[in-house]
Amino acid sequence: MRRALLGIMAVVVGVGSTAALALTDDPISTRRKLMQANGAVFYGAAQGMIKGEIPFNPVLAAAVIRTNNAVAYSFGDYFPPGSDKGDTRASPKIWDEMEEFQRYLAEFRAATDAARQADPKTLEAFQASMTEVNRTCQQCHDEFRLADN
Fold it and tell me: Residue 128 belongs to what domain range?
C-alpha cells in the first residue's frame, strides 16, 4: 500500500512539473497525460480512501483535489484546431460545440474550486466534494469522449 501511495503522489507532483509542461507541443499527448494524472488520483487515492482500501488522510485528499483543480485549469488549453485528428479519444464534437465544451470545463473548474475551498478534513466531507467533482467529469466524458474501442 505504501508503494501505491508513493506512486500516486509522484503523479500528483508530476502534474505541475516541467516534464508535464514540456509536452505542450503535442496537444493530444498533453491531454492524455493530464487525463491520466486525473484518473490516477481519482481511481487510485480518492476511490481507495472512499472505499476504505486506503486510510483517509486529509493531506492526500488535498493532493487529489489540487491535482483535479490543476487539470481543470489546464486541460482546456490543449484543443487547438486540428488536434481532433490522431490517436485521441476526444470527440470531434468538441470542435463543433466548443462553447458547450468550455461550459463543461467551467463546471469542472467550479467543482474543483469548491472542493479546494472546502478543504475536507474528514472522509465524509471528502466524499461530498468528490461527488460533485466526479459528476462534472462524468458529464463531460459522456458528452465529449469517444467510447473505448
Answer: 2-144
